[in-house]
Each structure stands twice: as C-alpha cells, then as structure tokens.
Amino acid sequence: QDIKPQFTSGASRGHAKLDGESDDDENDNFVFGSDWNIRKGSAEALENLCRTFGKDALPSILPHFEKGLQNANWLIRESCILGVGCISIGCGRDMESYLPQLIPFLFQMLSDEKPLIRSITCWTLSRYSQWIFKQNDNNTYANRLMTELLQKTQDRNKGVQKSAVSSIAAIVEAVDIDILPYMDAIVSSFYQALQTYQKNNLVVLYDTISTFAECLGPDFCNDNYERMIVMPLLAKWEALRDDDTDLFPVLECLSFVSVAYGSRFERYAKPLFDRSVRLMEWVLVGTALHQHDTKKDLPNREFLACSVDLLSALCETLRGKIEPLVQNSKLIPLLHEACKDPAPDFSQSCFALVGDLSKYASTTLSPFFSEFIPILIKGINPRFMRSTNNAIWALGEIILRTNFEVLSPFAQNLFEQVNNAFNMREAGNIMETCAVTIGRLGGVCPNIIAPNLGKLIRPVCIALSNLPEDAEKEDAARGLCVVIERNPQVVLLHFQSLCDLITGFTHPRNETKQMFLNLLHAFKNQTDPVQWQQMIDSFPRRIKDSLRSTYNL
Q: Does residue 18 carry a pLDDT above 70?
C-alpha cells in the first residue's frame, strides 16, 4: 500500500465528547453549554494521571467513584461516570475485575431521567467496548450494548442522540470487524437518523458513517447498505446549493464512502466529479475577482479544499477510469492555479490531488509535469509538515512517470529540498516519503544523488526498510541501486544497512531480484575475500541466511 498523502479536513476521529447538551423539551435547571473548561481540564488531568501511574492511581480514585456513583445528586453521579471513562485508557486492564459489576450498572444509567447522564454513559461504555465484545455472554454484554446504543440514537434528547452515534463510531474503531454481526441494525439506525436528524447531529452522523466506511471498507458495501446510506447521502448532496456550507461534511463523508465502495461507486462518480470541479472554479474565479475589487464577496475557500479532497477520493475509487473525466474537464488548469495558494491547509490537499492524478491520469497530466514540479518544490516548507509530505509524495509520483529530459532542469533543486526535509529532526513520519522520492529520483537522475550517497545510504535504507513490501518501496530500492552503481566505494561502510533492505524483500519482482543479485555479487567480486567474509559474518543471522539462500552469497 502506498504511503498515504495527508489531507486537509478528513473526518475527525475524536468522537468521545466531554461536553453535554440539554434538551429544549426537558428544562433541566443546570445547563452546561459548550465551554466546560474546568470540567474538560479536570477530565484530561485525570486521564493523564492514569496514563502516567496506571494501576497505582486506582486505590486513590476508585473509592471516590464507588461512593459518587451511588450519590443522590445526579451531577455527582454524572461526573463519576465521566471519570470512569477517563481512566479507561491508562487503567483499562486493571479495571477488568470491576467491569462485571460496573457495566450492568452503566446499562441501567442509559435509562436515567437526566439526559446528561444518558449522554456521558454512552461515551463511557464505548471506552470499555473492547472488553465488552470479548465476553462470551453476548446477550449480557455486546448484544445489550449495541441494542441500547442504537435505541439512544433516537432518544428524545438531541444531545443523547449525538453521544450515542459518536459512541458507535468509537466502538467500530475499537472492535473493527467484530461489529459486523450488528451491521444490519446499525445501518437501519443510520438510515432512520438520516431522515430525522437536524443540522448539528447530521454532522456527527456523517462523521460516524465516514468512520464505518474507513474501518470496514468492503464490509460496509452491499445493495441494501447502498440503498440506505449512499442514496440518502447523495440526495442530501444534491439538495444543497453550491454556496451552502452544509456541503462540507457531506462532501467529506462521500469521500470516505466512495473509497469504501470502490468500483460500485462508479455510477455516481461523474456528477460528483463535475460539481467538485465547478466548485473549484467558482472559488478560484471569485477569489481573483475579490483581489481585483475588494467590494466583491470573497468565496469560502473551504469549498475548494473539500472539493479537492473528494476528487482525490474519486481517483482512489475509480483509479484509471478517472482519466476520461479529467480529460474532458478544466481540472488541470484549475488545480495548477489552486496549488499556488500559499496557505498549507489548502495546498496540502492540492498537492495530494496532483500525486493522485499522476498515478491514475498520467496521460492527461504528463504534458504539464514541468509546470507542476516547481510549484511542488516550492511547497516543501519545514514549517508545514503535512503539506510538505504531500508535495514530496506528489513529486515521487511524477518522477516515476517522467523522464530525464523533463526532470533534469529541476533535479538538483528538487533533491536539495527533499534532502533538507529528510534531514530535519522534526521529519518524523515524512522520512519514508522523502526516502521513496529520493530513491525514485536516483533511478532517473542518479548523478545528482551519487556525490551525496555516503551520507544518504544508511538513513535511506533504514527508512525504506520501515515500509511494507510494495511497488513503491521496490521502485525506490531499484533507484537506489542505480545510484550505488555510480558511487559504490562509499557503501561498504554501511553495507549491512543495504543488505538489510535487500533481504527484507520476500517476493521482489524478477527484474528487481536480478538487480539486487548483480549489485551484491559486484561488491563481493571487488572486495578482498577475507574482508568480505568478516563483514558477512558480522551480520545478523536473518540477513546472512537470506543472502546465502536467495542470492548465493
């Protein structure tokens, strides 16, 4: 699987809310509202204490909870239920002996007259869902949990509805495919919610549907689910005006759903594609007009980001079938203009789409590679790691599909900028992205990288070794071999790192395996036999065994 580009919006995964919501129908005297700063701070502090001290924190905490959960004051009971959820991360295993008594109590609290108690109980139960789903007595635990939460998605209180839906999302993240026996009931509940929820809760529902699509993929797809989820989502998408900000969460949700449905989603793709391109044009033209005349309204640029993210999702959904849509649209010139936006929150989505189009619509995009490459190089900025990651990733995709003539005018600057990002202390997860792009660049312009190979060989090999075995990793390793042929003498000092990378491939393509074989034997033939044997003997057994069995060394 490819290194994933990072997108601007993307569904939020922090479903568990620490704040509540009162109902207009129930006139509770105590209304918390949206800013519970002391409450949120206290809850976070409690969670961090348990993360730090683990089970050692429980003797000081549990007596207070045990007493508070029985308190006549509902506010104290509610706070203790919140606290029980907070300690689940740091003390989850140590709480297991208490859960057979605690979980049934929490089930009872789902019927409490106070909506805030029902709401926070949904969240707390979701935090113990892994334990609940592991119990053999499904009727007592998992079945009841899902039955109760699905009922609460239609609670008379909107805050409880919201908490129940987001808690179900947290559960699928925690238990993954163990949720499948309940999918028919869940989808039916989502379908009902799509008909009845209003604006605020619809946003949470869209996010939850996105989570299911992301976690379950094809398991979220069948004719019935398509009818109950996809069709209502598209109906809401069609009903909204182009300038309605309620489009944002719908577009985001459709992005996840389209990827999950894959080829099944092809029939819906063209209207989504066309409208996304139209939204891009509206934002870009409106922005240009505003810059010329500030009296004209400035469009909300979030329409651009959401549209670009959906187009990226459609690329992943349709793969090569996206190309005819791209050919017959204004997407390429619009994307070129959008990539110039200096704001990283927008450029990172645009850079990702450039990479996706390079993969799936290269015939259409390739005449414009020389126009996109300098923009992507300029987008490498250590201050903005996400947009930098996507710029480097997109460059790697272009490099794989271009030639020396196109690349050579930019190669030196490209290498310097990617190498600078690779060497940053803050590089973190983008190191693998940098290593792939450096390797691919080496396959096309090896003389640019060869003089720097002594400093690069070990960290690049380590970064590539951390990646799963796929075509992306293999392309980079092949490019690295081409560079090594230009400057082999600097490699022996770090030869183990190279061998570790090579022997990490269990099923390389035949041409790749032959390239590895030729390179390794060239080193052996050019090295003193005693020195060679000493070097090989110093390697870990896994590397030695693989070199012997696979490469006859």
A: no
